[in-house]
Structure formats: structure tokens, C-alpha cells
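Hey, resending since the last one bounced:
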Amino acid sequence: MYDFANKISAAGIGQTHLFSVGQAGYIIKSSGGQLLGIDLYLSDCVERAEGHIGYKRLLPKILDPGELDFEGIIATHPHPDHFDIDAVPELMGNGNSRTRLFASMGCDKLVKQTQMEYFQDRITYVKADETYRVGDFKISFVNCDHGAGTPDAVGVIVEVDGKRIYEVGDTCLHLEWVNEIKAAGKPDVLILPINGAYGNLNEDEAAELSNELKPRLTIPCHYGMFASHGGDPGKFLNVMTKKYWELPVLLMTQGEHLVIEERL
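The C-alpha cells again:
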């Protein structure tokens, strides 16, 4: 297996790190060495849940859920590529009694399905306009629209080491929410889907939202993992380059490591 866990562990103290896990999954490492995971898809449970080859995992597994200890895990909604029903119980167990799970309201059914009631005192069900602290991280949940099937879906703004990382979650375009996000402070890093399926932003819409928020760095996600999901990073880059050339973009490969201080 790719030595991703050691790469994360070796990332230096004193800087803020962002790691891409693939799909919409990211790990943030604070300057103090603490870890926060967002929408980590580490298994192949989606193909099993959906039952056809369009949801076969096309990117390799690069992290075993037992390899790292997290201060917090975030699941923005109950789809299994965001709440990994195979990995989350192990991430919460993992020999520690510290890791907290912040999950959208609809994830309660998956908690019961995976028999995670044992961890109930460390599970918080969240909704938009709520803010929590875990370790070095301030996490604020914001509006998200992933359609009628997941009315509880949320986006999240993570503040750590004086930096602001906004992961919009699986959502369609709502420019009326831009002022709400700006009121929380300009994002240093904006992470947003580009696949245009299941109610998500497509490449053009993602570029439009980036232009409205004008982050210091935009990172597209939610492509490459499943044949059925779509998403063209080349098209997104082309739109950004032609229409919003002044906004920096980073296409992160799975397993890539970004030192945020060095990029902003």
C-alpha cells in the first residue's frame, strides 16, 4: 500500500498541511500536529451499496483507517463516499477514546447500521449555522443543497492556524449564500465539486462560485473515483484560465500534499 500515512505523520510541525485522499476527502494537519478528516472515502463500500460497476473504485486505496489518529472526522452527508460505512467505525475506534465525529443529521441511520452507538458520547449531529471546536480546529457548518434526498447535507469552514478552508460539500449553485460565506471571512482555500451530477456544481458553476468568493486558492474535487460521477478537471481548469485567470487553481492528485503557507 502507498505509504500515505507516513507522509502525513512526517509533515513538519509549525506549518499547516492539506492532503488529498481522493473523491471529496481531505485531511488537514495543524501546525501543532493534530489531524482533521473531511469526507474520507477509504474503502470500496460504494460499489457494494450501489450494486453496479459504475461505482467501482477507480482510484487506489491509499490509507488504512487504522493507521492514523484524528482529533475529528467530518461527514457532510450520509452518502457512503462521504460517510464510509466500512472506515468510519474503525476511524472512531482505532484504540483511542478521543476522536470525535461531526456528521450531518441524516447520518444517524448509518451510525445505527454500523453499530456505532458505543461511540455516541463522541458523535455530534450537525446542521448549518452551528460551530464547534475540536483540538486546534474551529469548524463552522454552512448551508448546502444536495437535493431532496439529502436535505441535511452541510458544507464546512475549517479555521486553523489563522487560515480558513471552505469545503462546500456536495451542492448545487446558490449565489445567494455568497454573502453569508464572505461574512465569515475570505476563504484562503476553497474546495468544491465539479462533477455536475446528483445536484452538484458542474465545472462552469464551480468556476463561477470561485469567482464570487475569490479565495486565495481553489481546489476542485469529486472526480476520478467513479465512472458514474463524471467531472472534468481539464474543463474546469480551462474555464478558470480563460475567464478567471487571476484566481489561482490547484489540481491535487490523490495522495498529494500541500503546505498551505507555501501556496498562499
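Residues 178 and 213 are 7 Å apart (CA to CA).

Sorry for the duplicate.
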